[in-house]
């Protein structure tokens, strides 16, 4: 086998440039690095302004409306029988020419191609061209030919009919994302020469036997003729090598060949989700061929994983069970890493997945409006023990059920499942995001629900589901998120007893945070609350004269039309006394901009904490919470807990606390203060808990202590205090639940009234750098005169804090560490706290 990379500098031509203010005309040519995309390249060369800055997204919309070609010349010398062109993530509608001859046409970004191009190649110089037609134009043309409408959800600034082209749906714009209709090839382009066959890929999926592990190997081979060959599989584990050699009789064409390596159970250690143990990964290599050999390798983790969906406790559970242990799924929803594919990198994937694991998450849901992720993403999830709830890439829409579409989807699903199923992190597959619900969203569908439901079933159950199960029967196929289970059309936005829920009544319907306590979900796979980015983040896209919530730029970076209003209106429910003579917008306009940014983040953290605290207290009735959303594709006001730049919002700091494996949970419901202790681990835990009551001067005036042994995977009610009957003065009391478990001390504060009614005092915070290390890190101490809540330390230089969003009590200063990216002499830290932001 001979591999020749075609990566490197190609030539980009604007073959049909749409009207633009970048001075680019049809026929203009540029260099382009492949893998890469047009936006990334033009930005890198300074040909377009940064679409993430100001309102400049609008100035780059023309790129997606234009046609482009990407081409290069290359040397080729035939040495072996056949030559194949290997392609992935060709984005999207394109025709491939080699030496002027048409080879193939593409219109699904999620397809993987191994094209035998031997007969198109010349000895010596060759030319390869990908001629891209605007996906947007194709989508609009397809729409005009439909015999009945196929509606999808639309966003303030979007590309029409995105549901008629198979590319990442959020490229067309979303309620947190810009419209950036990428064009390009996002993975390496390779030519492979081989004698009789091409060993395209293999997947290694472990299954448990009696006292053994079976490593099921599936090899995908394309053969130019019937022949027989040798297959040699080697697994390296704990200093041992396990091998198997079999003879394979290859048939002409594309086929899957199966073989299996069986090893004693104790020759490998188990792979566990984050928080439950280690994530050992073992290397397996498969070699095919004798003289002309091809070897492919993979890393595999040994674990069993099932999703239970049995009728239990009066409904239907959704419980992830790994190695026989039920796991409370803790995490968030994942959207693509960046709106511009060229900006994604292995380092960024590693950092953000590590940051999810740092926050005690063990699961992410790959949301169906993005794409089947890059290998770097799955590898990071395998390494950090982050399980995946994996949607197939359909979201918030109806889709065609015509044969051409079904055929395209069939190849998409089988290509992708074959590619990803070897990853230990994948827990379950799901048909789509909200498409079942979307059937009731549009006038067209409401008018003929049964017709659209039939189409939905044809695509989702009969095509997507069928292929998923055929390609990987080792995982559950969950029909849609949310849903109550196969064939059940319940409204899982509001019905809570079965399957997974998307609970949006607080954000989209404007209910109070208490509303989270009015449902008892079995698994809540989406619920979110927006916040603004931090001031430093805002400054990356907003000029000084636009630092105002209602400026054009800030409004442009808020893609949820009611977003700012929902956030600011809620400030007056929670934090600020209303001025009845003014409207909420007039009041909000008077607030200081930086304070609003901070306050919105504290508010978001409170919302999500309220939900998760209550739902975790329902363990094991509820067995999963995945908030919306972990990350951002560009700097924007959104539901994320990590900003585009990677900086944590208050919510992400809070997530590490509310997702602790063993933790106190404190909440008020129906005017009763509930104290729970939850234990997610598979073993008993001895805990000491102290519930301390303080006034706002900081005096601890009462306490109750508890000693308990918590059962595995359980939630234990330690106390319920009726606030009505107690003599506690809610407005002058907050409490802190302290827990000592293993070597940790945890502290979980709660105010007994709304912050706006609490008698908080100005804390007079004092920050001191108490120690500096040679690597530039510094230890910081924060002291206060009076109790200070949600203290956020910010640094003007880039770096990492060890903790933030802190509770500082007069006799309990906070101590954290800051490690700047590059060593600096002094850092001028700034501080925010709840009192100062609201007075
Ligand atoms: C959910 C998601 C997304 C959306 C989010 C916020 O339901 O599935 O489509 O971004 O709501 O509105």
Explain this structure.
- The mean pLDDT is 97.
- Helix 6 (403-420) packs parallel to helix 9 (449-471) and helix 14 (593-617) packs parallel to helix 15.
- The protein is α+β, with helices and mostly antiparallel strands and 839 residues long.
- Beta-D-mannopyranose binds at residues 174-176, 369, 396, 433-434, 502, 526, 628.
Structural class: alpha+beta
Strand neighbour order, sheet with most strands: 3-2-5-11-8-9
Number of strands: 47
Principal-axis shape equals: globular
Please state the CA-atom Rg, rounded to the nearest Å.
Answer: 28 Å
Q: What portion of the residues fall into strands of 2 or more residues?
A: 25-35%
Q: Give the rounded overall mean pLDDT.
A: 97
Helix content: 10-25%
What is the terminal-to-terminal distance? 71 Å
Contiguous helical run count: 16
**What are the segments in which pLDDT stays under 50 over at least 5 consecutive residues?**
none
* Largest sheet properties: 6 strands, antiparallel
What small ligands are held by the chains? beta-D-mannopyranose
List the helices and strands and how they pair.
Elements: E1 2-5, E2 8-16, E3 29-34, E4 36-37, H1 38-44, H2 61-65, E5 67-76, E6 82-88, E7 90-91, E8 94-98, E9 101-106, E10 112-116, E11 124-132, H3 135-144, E12 184-185, E13 190-194, E14 197-208, E15 212-223, E16 227-237, E17 240-250, E18 253-264, E19 282-288, E20 294-300, E21 305-308, E22 311-312, E23 315-316, E24 319-322, E25 325-327, E26 329-334, H4 346-358, E27 363-366, H5 375-384, E28 387-391, H6 403-420, E29 426-430, H7 435-438, H8 443-447, H9 449-471, E30 476-478, E31 501-502, E32 524-526, H10 535-538, H11 552-556, H12 563-574, H13 584-590, H14 593-617, E33 624-627, H15 650-658, E34 662-669, E35 672-679, E36 685-694, E37 700-710, E38 714-722, E39 734-741, E40 744-751, E41 766-772, E42 778-783, E43 788-794, E44 799-801, E45 806-808, E46 814-820, E47 830-832, H16 834-838
Parallel strand pairs: 26-27, 26-33, 27-28, 28-29, 29-30, 31-32
Antiparallel strand pairs: 1-13, 2-3, 2-5, 4-12, 5-11, 6-10, 6-13, 7-12, 8-9, 8-11, 14-15, 15-18, 16-17, 16-19, 19-20, 21-24, 22-23, 24-25, 34-35, 35-38, 36-37, 36-39, 39-40, 41-42, 42-46, 43-45, 43-47, 44-46
Helix pairs in contact: 4-5, 6-9, 12-14, 14-15
């Amino acid at each position: 086998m001979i591999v020749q990379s075609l990566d490197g500098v190609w030539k980009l031509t604007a073959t049909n440039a749409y009207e633009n203010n970048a001075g680019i005309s049809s026929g203009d040519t540029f260099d382009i690095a492949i893998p890469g995309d047009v936006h990334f390249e033009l930005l890198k060369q300074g040909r377009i302004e940064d679409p993430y800055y100001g309102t400049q997204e609008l100035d780059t919309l023309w790129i997606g409306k234009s046609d482009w070609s990407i081409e290069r010349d290359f040397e080729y010398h035939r040495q072996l029988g056949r030559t194949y062109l290997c392609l992935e993530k060709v984005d999207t509608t394109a025709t491939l020419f080699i030496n002027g001859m048409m080879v193939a046409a593409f219109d699904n970004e999620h397809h993987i191609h191994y094209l035998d191009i031997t007969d198109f190649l010349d000895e010596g110089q060759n030319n390869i061209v990908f001629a891209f037609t605007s996906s947007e134009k194709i989508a609009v043309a397809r729409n005009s030919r439909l015999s009945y409408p196929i509606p999808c959800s639309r966003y303030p600034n979007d590309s029409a009919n995105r549901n008629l082209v198979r590319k990442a749906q959020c490229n067309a714009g979303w309620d947190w994302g810009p419209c950036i209709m990428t064009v390009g090839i996002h993975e390496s382009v390779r030519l492979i020469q081989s004698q009789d066959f091409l060993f395209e890929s293999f997947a290694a999926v472990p299954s448990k036997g009696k006292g053994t592990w079976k490593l099921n190997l599936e090899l995908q081979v394309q053969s130019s003729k019937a022949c027989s060959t040798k297959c040699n599989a080697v697994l390296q584990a704990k200093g041992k090598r396990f091998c198997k050699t079999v003879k394979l009789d290859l048939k002409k064409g594309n086929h899957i060949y199966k073989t299996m390596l069986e090893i004693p159970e104790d020759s490998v250690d188990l792979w566990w989700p984050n928080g439950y143990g280690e994530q050992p990964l073992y290397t397996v290599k498969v070699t095919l061929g004798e003289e002309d050999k091809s070897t492919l390798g993979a890393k595999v983790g040994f674990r069993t994983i099932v999703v239970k969906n049995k009728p239990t406790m009066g409904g239907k559970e959704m419980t992830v069970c790994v190695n026989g242990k039920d796991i409370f799924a803790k995490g968030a929803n994942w959207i693509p890493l960046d709106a511009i594919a060229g900006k994604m990198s292995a380092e960024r994937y590693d950092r953000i997945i590590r940051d999810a694991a740092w926050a005690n998450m063990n699961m992410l849901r790959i949301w169906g409006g993005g794409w089947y992720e890059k290998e770097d993403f799955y590898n990071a999830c395998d390494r950090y023990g982050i399980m995946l709830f994996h949607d197939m890439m359909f979201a918030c829409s109806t889709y065609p059920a015509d044969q051409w579409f079904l055929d395209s989807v069939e190849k998409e699903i089988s290509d992708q499942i074959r590619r990803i199923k070897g990853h230990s992190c994948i827990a379950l597959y799901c048909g789509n995001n909200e498409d079942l619900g979307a059937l009731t969203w549009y006038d067209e569908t409401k008018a003929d629900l049964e017709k659209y439901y039939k189409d939905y079933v044809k695509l989702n159950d009969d095509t997507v589901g069928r292929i998923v199960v055929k390609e990987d029967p080792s995982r559950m196929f969950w029909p849609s998120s949310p849903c109550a289970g196969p064939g059940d059309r319940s409204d899982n936005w509001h019905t809570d007893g079965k399957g997974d829920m998307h609970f949006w009544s607080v954000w989209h319907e404007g209910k109070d945070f208490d509303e989270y306590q009015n449902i008892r979900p079995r698994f809540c796979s989406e619920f979110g609350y927006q916040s603004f980015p931090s001031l430093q983040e805002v400054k990356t896209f907003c000029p000084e004269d636009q630092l105002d919530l209602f400026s054009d730029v800030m409004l442009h970076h808020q893609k949820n039309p009611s977003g700012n209003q929902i956030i600011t209106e809620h400030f007056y429910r929670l934090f600020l006394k209303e001025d009845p003579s003014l409207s909420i917008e007039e009041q909000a306009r008077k607030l200081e901009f930086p304070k609003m940014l901070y306050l919105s983040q504290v508010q978001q953290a409170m919302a999500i904490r309220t939900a998760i605290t209550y739902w975790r207290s329902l363990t094991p009735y509820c067995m999963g919470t995945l908030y919306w959303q972990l990350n951002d594709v560009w700097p924007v006001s959104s539901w994320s807990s990590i900003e585009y730049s990677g900086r944590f919002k208050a919510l992400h700091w809070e997530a590490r606390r509310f997702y602790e494996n063993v933790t106190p949970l404190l909440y008020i419901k129906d005017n009763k203060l509930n104290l729970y202790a939850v234990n997610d681990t598979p073993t008993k835990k001895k805990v000491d808990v102290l519930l301390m009551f303080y006034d706002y001067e900081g005096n601890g005036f009462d306490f109750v202590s508890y000693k308990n042994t918590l059962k595995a995977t359980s939630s234990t009610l330690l106390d319920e205090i009726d606030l009505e009957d107690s003599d506690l003065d809610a407005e002058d009391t907050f409490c802190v639940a302290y827990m000592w478990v293993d070597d940790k001390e945890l502290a979980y504060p709660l105010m007994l009234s709304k912050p706006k009614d609490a008698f908080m005092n100005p804390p007079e915070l004092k920050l001191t750098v108490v120690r500096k290390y040679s690597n530039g890190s510094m230890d910081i101490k924060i002291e206060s005169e009076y109790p200070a809540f949600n203290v956020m330390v910010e640094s003007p230089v880039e770096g990492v804090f060890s903790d933030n969003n802190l509770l500082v009590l007069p006799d309990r200063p906070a101590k954290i560490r800051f490690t700047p990216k590059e060593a600096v002499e002094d850092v001028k830290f700034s501080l925010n706290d709840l009192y100062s932001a609201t007075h």
